[in-house]
Amino acid sequence: MASSDSVNAEQRPLVNAAFLRVMAAQVAVGFGFSIYFLLPKYLATELGANASTIGAVAASGLLASVIVSPLIGAGLDRFGRRGPLAIGGFLVVLTSFGMLGVTRVGPALYGLRLAQGIGFALGFNAAAASVADIAPRGRLGQAMGLLGAASLLTNAVAPALGESIAHAWGWAPVFSIAIGTGVATMLVALSLPGERAPISVREQPSALAVPRLGYVTAVAGACFGTLITFTQPYALARGAERVSGYLIGYTLGALFVRVGLGGMADRFGHRRVAQLSLATYGMVAIGTSCLTPSWIVPFGVGFGLSHGFLYPALAALAAEGSNPERRGRALSAFNAYFNLGAGLALVGCGWLARVAGYPAVFVLVGALTTLSVVALKLPSAGPLTPPRSRAPTR
Known about the structure:
Elements: H1 2-11, H2 17-34, H3 39-46, H4 51-79, H5 82-99, H6 107-134, H7 140-169, H8 172-189, H9 212-237, H10 244-260, H11 264-268, H12 270-288, H13 296-320, H14 327-356, H15 358-371, H16 373-377
């Protein structure tokens, strides 16, 4: 009977009504978050911020998501996915209203970014845990890739639309769009499956471990944060007028991988695919030190191709080592490591860019990313939470 249940679980279709509802929720919350990928340009052109200030403001939201990650993971496992997703959408609405009144870099802006980081962590972790619940065994990497593809669509559309609107009518309509997507997130959240049954105190997992997989995930986050944030002011300094082409190229590259090659990590092994994509990620970062305006889109495509393989493979490594009742914690821990690396890199690299220039930032982060392949090759690189004493129930 157990063998028959296992076969049936693996043969279940990945795409069904519940899966599509989660995808819709990810598109809604992702759009509200992705429109803030233009924040570096807004800070540089509207508020006169320098590189270190841009890095600090961008990092504040990421670090806030790291701090609250253990609480979010525990809440997802104890109370379910729907409530955190709705709260995440509400925070997008609240903070975007606040951005309409920002006139300088100060405590108000940092406070809004902190709340935005918490809101996105709630929304994205809830969606990721829902997808992991739904995905048949043997297709977890593909499911995570499709979740990322839904997010990537917003990575391209939101900044491109926002930049065009900002050029024509200013930034207030841009933040107003984010308000609308936050409302949509709350509405979609209400259509998701009901809450999970609470976990008893005896079933609570032990404290979060800090394995090598966490280190590799943090380094990947550092590379992502550096490329997505500092390429924009660097390109502007090199003579570019618009930077959304970089984000469009990134999105197209990542979508090609996750939609067209989404099952590759499941077929060839999550660890192996992560190793190869880490090395590519590092080389793209190093190459960005020589960026010119005419090469913005190709470098964006290279960034997207490497990230398209890497993120789902690492997420699958994190999720596959956890029991279903601990999945919210495992994926929250994974995203916390990723955001921690990104946040620390933004603060440190913002200072380094101010002192030594942007090329030094890309070379340093690219070298560290390439070297992290060694850590992932070691046999004990995971999982992100310690295993339970009993075997998984499925």
